From TrEMBL:
Entry-linked InterPro entries: Glyco_trans_1, Glyco_trans_4-like_N
Transmembrane regions listed in the UniProt entry: none
This protein's name: Glycosyltransferase
Domain Glycosyltransferase subfamily 4-like N-terminal: 18-177
Keyword rRNA-binding: no
GO biological process, one term: lipopolysaccharide biosynthetic process
Domain Glycosyl transferase family: 199-311
EC number: 2.4.1.-
Molecular function as annotated in GO: glycosyltransferase activity
Pfam families noted in UniProt: Glyco_transf_4, Glycos_transf_1
Organism superkingdom: Bacteria
Biological classification of the source: Bacteria, Pseudomonadati, Pseudomonadota, Gammaproteobacteria, Vibrionales
Keywords: Glycosyltransferase, Transferase
Length: 377
């Protein structure tokens, strides 16, 4: 396939925090590597320091967006869609249900649209009633009008079957890249920066929003009264009352270390040397952070939400969502355990970016050659 592909719905690549962003950062360079396609990822201007650039053979272009959570996705997606009139692209790949609002517009512009549903974002606690209705509309429009749909989990596939009678979606998981070995001096300098000892701290990662459950994690950590640190890598895109309250909560508990956003070798160093990874989330599409923790062979403690259960880890990995008493007991047990690694090879074979790129390219081919959208007149 030689047709140009344009990508919208992501804040940008590379090294922009977020599940969709990590997905795009790995997927499109791999597609370019295998198929030598012309690909352009359209980023949101507040998150990147370029106008036009490239990353591992993928063109990256910034289009203006307001840095306001309620308007950012739809305004940027609309402007990005209009730019595709002049960029020579035949296939537009739209990520997430907020940007899914523009799928009908792209079809009117004559584009073949592939839509990836990364999860029901309207379940996230940060959205008010009006925003939730808009996100549900984005899901409906994308599920109805996209030429082809990709879902990243069976949970999401069930949603679009039940709600929209869309039975032709392609299940293509998120992937994870196996880490490379860091120089020991880089590990040592990063651990020293945060006063950490290898194999002797818990780690969690994500944006400071309610659905990540970090407030539960800090409560449970405080109740466990442990003598090993809890490291939370992340911050917030937009300061909110919740994020400020969370930072204050962390400040009031001895042993909690907030690193802010980390990327590259620093993130890798903190991840790779942790004792246990913790994910107390209330909502995930398919948890990339968990897959990354597994790539580092870390023991894990994760909430029993459907997306985490779909990874099919051993039962003792899971705790009941929102149950800080269970989480407290798990943290205390892991703190007593000897530092150990777990071989997740049999799990990770399902999340290989090389296979995912091949599967995604097949969906693009199908979008270009399929004449009639199933279930539509």
């Amino acid at each position: 396939m030689t047709e140009k592909i344009t990508v919208i719905g992501t804040r940008g690549i590379p090294n922009v925090l977020g599940g969709v962003e990590t997905h795009c950062q790995h997927l499109y360079p791999e597609i370019h590597r295998q198929f030598d396609n012309d690909i352009c990822v359209i980023a949101r201007s507040p998150y990147v320091d370029y106008k036009i650039s490239s990353f591992q053979g993928v063109q990256t272009k910034a289009v203006w967006a307001p840095k306001k959570k309620s308007l950012e996705a739809i305004i940027h997606s609309t402007l990005a869609s209009l730019t595709t009139l002049f960029d020579g692209s035949k296939v537009i790949h739209v990520h997430a249900i907020g940007p899914g609002l523009v799928v009908p517009l792209l079809r009117l512009l004559g584009k073949k649209v592939v839509f990836t549903h990364h999860g029901p974002d309207y379940d996230r606690q940060k959205w008010g009633g009006f925003a939730k209705r808009i996100l549900k509309l984005g899901e409906k429009l994308a599920a109805t009008y996209a030429n082809e749909i990709i879902v990243i989990s069976e949970v999401i596939n069930d949603i679009i079957k039940e709600k929209y009678n869309r039975y032709d979606a392609h299940l293509i998981y998120n992937g994870v890249k196996l880490p490379t070995q860091l120089p020991q001096e880089k590990i040592d300098s990063t651990l020293s920066k945060f006063a950490l000892t290898a194999g002797n701290y818990f780690v969690a990662v994500g944006r400071f929003v309610e659905e990540k459950g970090f407030h539960d994690l800090i409560d449970a950590y405080q109740q466990a009264n442990l003598n090993i640190p809890l490291v939370i890598m992340g911050d917030t895109d937009h300061p909110t009352p919740y994020s400020e309250k969370l930072k204050q909560q962390a400040k009031n508990v001895d042993g909690v270390i907030l690193t802010g956003f980390l990327k590259g070798e620093e993130l890798q160093a903190i991840f790779s040397q942790a004792k246990t990874f913790v994910m107390p989330s209330y909502h995930e599409g398919l948890p990339i952070a968990l897959l990354e923790a597994m790539s580092y062979s870390l023991p894990a403690i994760v909430s029993n939400i459907p997306a985490n259960l779909e990874v099919k880890l051993t039962p003792d990995t899971y705790f009941s969502i929102g149950n800080t008493e269970e989480l407290t007991l798990q943290l205390a047990q892991h703190a007593k355990n000897e530092y150990s690694s777990i071989n997740y090879a049999s799990y990770l074979e399902y999340y290989d970016w090389e296979k995912i790129a091949t599967q995604t390219m097949a969906v693009y081919q199908r979008a270009l050659t399929k004449k009639v959208l199933s279930g539509q007149s």
